[in-house]
Amino acid sequence: GPLLERPLMEVRLGELHTWITTCDFSPQGLLGAVQKAWNSYYDKYINVRRGGPAGISMLLAGYCLLSYCWNYQYFRRHRWRKYH
Predict the structure, then answer these.
(1) Which one in 15, 33, 55, 72 has a CA-CA gap of 20 to 30 Å to 61?
(2) What is the model's pLDDT at position 61?
């Protein structure tokens, strides 16, 4: 199919530059990409008939990792004071 309609995982390495230049980087385009990614994730892992807890647990693990990264400097600073 046309290069613009292909998902990233189907683009060859030589076509990557051309594929990136065809993407819409406007605020509406980025919002649409985020919505499309969320819908794809939701349909694949959460909205399934015989699904397990994998989708929700991945979402929670991602939240925990992101929260830890945001607060890393705080943890590092207070841990140092606590032990010395």
Answers:
(1) 33
(2) 92
